Amino acid sequence: MRAVLRTLAAATLLAALAQPALAAATITIINTDGAGEGFNDATPAAPVGGNPGLTIGQQRLNCFQQAANIWGATLTSTVTIQIRAAFNPLTCNATSAVLGSAGPRFVEINEPSFQFQNVWYHEALACKQAGVDLTPPIVGDEGSDINAQFNSNLGNVGCLTGSGWYYGFDHNEGALIDLLAVLLHEFGHGLGFSTVTSGSTGNYLNGPPSAPALWDRFLYDETTGLHWTQNTPAQRVASAINTNNLTWDGTNVTAAVPGALSHTAELVVPYGSGSVAANFAAFGAALTLAGVTAEAALVVDPVAPTGDGCELPLNAGALAGKIAVVDRGVCTFVIKAKNAQNAGAIGCIIVNNVAGAISPGGADPTIVIPVVGITQAEGNALKAAMLGGPTNVTIRLHPTQLAGAHASGRVRMFAPNPFQGGSSVSHFDVSAFPNLLMEPAINADLTGSLDLTVPLFQDIGWFLGNPVATQLALVSAEVVKGHPRLRWYTPDGANERMQLHRRELPGDWELVGDLYADGTGSVTYEDLDAVPGRSYEYELGILTASGERRLGWAHVDVPLEGGLAIARAPGNTSGRALAFAVRLEGNDAAKLELLDASGRRVLRQELGALGSGEHQVTLESVPPSGIYWARVMQADRSASTRVVLVW
Q1: What is the pLDDT of residues 196-239, one digit of tens each?
Q2: Final residue in a domain of this structure, among 191, 220, 243
Q3: pLDDT score at 571
Q4: Mean pLDDT, to the nearest integer, of 455-481?
Q5: What is the DSSP letter of 412?
Q6: Is residue 79 domain-shared with residue 175, that is, in the same domain?
Q7: Residues 215 and 256 reside in one and the same domain
Q8: Residue range 370-386: average pLDDT?
């Protein structure tokens, strides 16, 4: 039985691109734009970020297909998934804009082959489980599964002026908006990441029959201890605004949470419960479990409002060696933190100037003190305590709580108060760190990972009957916020237990514990116990009938704060030149090596005594395409980064 979610306006089928034959699911983009507009815009454009299109329209279509390819390679279905798409002028002004939207055109219920009965399924997932197209294409294309619409005016004067679409595939969008990331997000909604139950009224979709969404089986209210399928409409309304207490009760997501989320930021205080929830800044020193402890000190600057830290503090002497407390407003978060650091502060707390949480954004690599944001209410409580005398606080990682997870271990869903139509309930919560693809806003640090969306799709039934892993490859090994973060992939699309092995060089291997693939074979681990200045090796053990296979070797050097470092040089994405940004310490001679994936050295280049600081180094010769490790060595120290070369 089917329900229609959108008005089925007739549209002309102008173009369709098919998914490559090797994909696990075939996803077709149906272009419904008219001549000269949207996908058919003939304005010339230079290829960008791996997108070879020579017109704006072709780059848009290529970007849509790239997103379809990523999802197609991730999902499994014998039924073609059709996405009906267009670029149109959408609501916007000079400072904000509707980027786009995608959602199911139909939902289905009570097909005998469905994993769950008496719940509404999004069309694409319904067809996957049924094994047949439940809405075969007919005249006017009423048979497509997903409807997608994106803003063609973005970046024009009066429509988020100057911040248009970035059509590259490399997530190097700068000041623009990454269309590929937005597409991956919106396609996720169309494929099943949303409910058709009203969060504002609590009413189920009035089919007939009136029934909950599949989504509602997994929405869990930590306060009432009930799922949305067990609630009354009034209870669902209350749950949709039960901030921090609406969670996802799916076993696959819950198992994946420890590998996907970092420990949350925490401010330890000498009053109340002894702990205040804090949010990470996008800049500054990485937080640690031990943390930074000092007396809290209010910033006082010469221009009203005198507590916003937008000018050099008048009380610099009182801030030296202390943790500065500064109010939000007037200038950027980066300016506030930098002024506090220049005054000698060893940490910075930014207090919101309105109700709600705050995550200080921005970028400045010269800020080397830890920075967090807290709510206005918590800031007022801290300031009141400071009036009573010296108040020591600690900025640190919470020892057990993960950013974006409830104390129960379940991931939080977005449930702000007041309710936000179109966002509430059908997204992960904004408290998640690292940022997740399916949060209600597209964040600049997204790199194309489908993160917790994949185990959630496994919970709702996209990956029934996956095979056992026989292969494993390392995808990335990097240092994020001072901690090694590693990602592996098994092309078998497995979801099984694997054993993580680690050793601190030059020590012996130790068994750290179990990790789980997420249904598509993606495995993520963040090593919060790694010590700055040390080097580590990692391997995953796949458990087979004949024993354990150790695969996916990775090497990570964890730099000291401000110490030796190496990274691929910005903008170094094409051509035969290969350049690195290298940070050295002191005047000792340094050298740069390139090792292949097995650890064999294939190139060495002497750098000489370049001196302390940042340097750009271009290799004198370049190896063929492949996966390598670039390592800079100076005295008894080293730092490395993984490099994928495609020529």
Answers
A1: 999 999 999 987 889 999 999 999 999 999 999 999 999 999 99
A2: 191
A3: 54
A4: 74
A5: B
A6: yes
A7: yes
A8: 94
With H, G, I as helix, E, B as strand and everything else as coil, classify residue 387: helix
Q: Is residue 466 part of a domain?
A: no
* 18 pLDDT more than 60: no
DSSP string, 449-479: --TTHHHHHHHTTTTTTPPPP---EEEEEEE
DSSP string, 331-375: S-HHHHHHHHHHTT-SEEEEEPSSSS--------TT--S-EEEE-
- Residue 382's nearest CA partner among 272, 303, 301 is 272
Residue 630, SS3 per DSSP:
strand
Q: What is the DSSP string of 261-304?
A: -PEEEEEE-SSTTSEEEEEE-SSSSPP-SS-EEEEEEE---SSS
Q: Looking up tokens 């077709």, which residue turns up?
A: 28
Total domains, the chain = 5
Residue 465 above 60 pLDDT? no
E strand or H helix that includes residue 185:
helix 179-191
CA 98 to CA 125: how far, in whole Å? 27
CA atoms of 618 and 489, how far apart (whole Å): 31
Give the integer Cα–Cα distance in Å for 87 and 38.
Answer: 5
The answer to whether 236 and 213 have CB atoms below 8 angstroms apart is: no
Reply yes or no: is the peptide bond before residue 270 cis, omega within 30 of 0.
Answer: no
Length of the chain equals 647
Residue 198 within any structural domain of the chain: no
Domain co-membership, 9 together with 114? yes
- Is 608 within the bounds of a domain? yes
Residue 468 belongs to a domain: no
| Token digits of residue 217 | 């089986």
Say whether 62 sits in a helix, a strand or coil.
helix
Q: What is the DSSP string of 567-614?
A: EEPTT--SSS--EEEEEE-SS--EEEEEEETTS-EEEEEEEE---SEE
429-432: long-range pairs with CB below 8 Å, 24+: 429/244, 429/404, 430/357, 430/359, 431/244, 431/264, 431/279, 431/357, 431/403, 431/404, 432/261, 432/403, 432/404
CB 437 within 8 A of CB 274: no
Question: How crowded is residue 502: how many other Cβ atoms within 10 Å of its Cβ?
Answer: 22
Which is more confident, 603 or 63?
Answer: 63
75 and 141, same domain (yes or no): yes
Using DSSP's 3-state secondary structure scheme, residue 406 falls into coil
357/300 Cα distance (integer angstroms)? 23
Cα-Cα-Cα-Cα torsion 222, 228, 229, 232, nearest 10 degrees, comes to 100
pLDDT at 468 over 90: no
